[in-house]
Design a protein that fits this description.
seven-stranded parallel beta sheet, about 15% strand, binds NADP nicotinamide-adenine-dinucleotide phosphate
Amino acid sequence: MTAFPLERTAIVTGAVSERGIGRATINYLAAQGWNIGVIDLDDARCRATAKDIAASYGVQAAGAGADVSDEASVRAAIDELEAALPQIVALANVAGVSSPVPYLEVDAAEWDRVLGINLNGVHYATRRAAESMARDGVGRIVNISSVSAQRGGGTFSKTPYSAAKAGVIGLTRATARELGEFNITVNAISPGPIDTDIMGGTLSEERKEELTRDLVVNRIGSPRDIAAAIAFLISEDAGYISGQTLNVDGGLYMH
Ligand code: NAP
């Protein structure tokens, strides 16, 4: 077992969106003392978000824009963050897009867009971050899947999204197996409906009630519910958990 270094960095993709899971995650982690690397599409907003985090929590933070579906841009962003921040111990792959297109209307471009961001993007960031983690002999990776992977959609997004998110679970298990020898754990979180803007904009009260109907917990999830689960899975004490999918979904999917 390799101990975490005193100064450690977590890189979070999709971390800029103000009401999103990634933003909640960087706030949560910075409050725990993690230094933060911010990756999202817009470079200027990544840098501004990092500045806010550093000022609010007194940690080190840096931002770099990247399109996670473009391997060269993800690699360049992680190179830059690694040069600017303490040792990268954790990566949270949060960036993602929804896709409500009915299957018979899905064309090749939509399929490639959704798989490119939601599945390839997780692989590209993981592939780069794992190089550093393997060299350092310690790492924690958390990927965001979705209950849509397990239930075949049913909330908002449809087939390409479900396929990509199911792919994330396979990627998680396989990388957990291959990277274990380097003391790197890889896990997935499968959120149920969370109150962000990804399901076609801010949710109305009616829509929230509708989404709550099949749950055993009587409310829609908050971004903080997911942030807290990420924080646990990347913690030093979670080192014996790998290859797992943690359902943080209000009990929507039980197996
Ligand atoms: P969100 O607020 O839309 O966050 C997604 C973030 O990813 C945004 O900051 C977005 O940037 C960024 N992003 C999109 N495409 C990108 C790309 N190509 N490269 C880099 N960053 C990109 O939605 P969220 O609900 O927090 O979603 C976070 C994750 O949770 C996603 O993977 C989503 O599939 C998953 N999830 C969400 C729910 C839910 O109910 N909310 C349920 C299950 C799983 P822009 O804002 O600039 O586009």
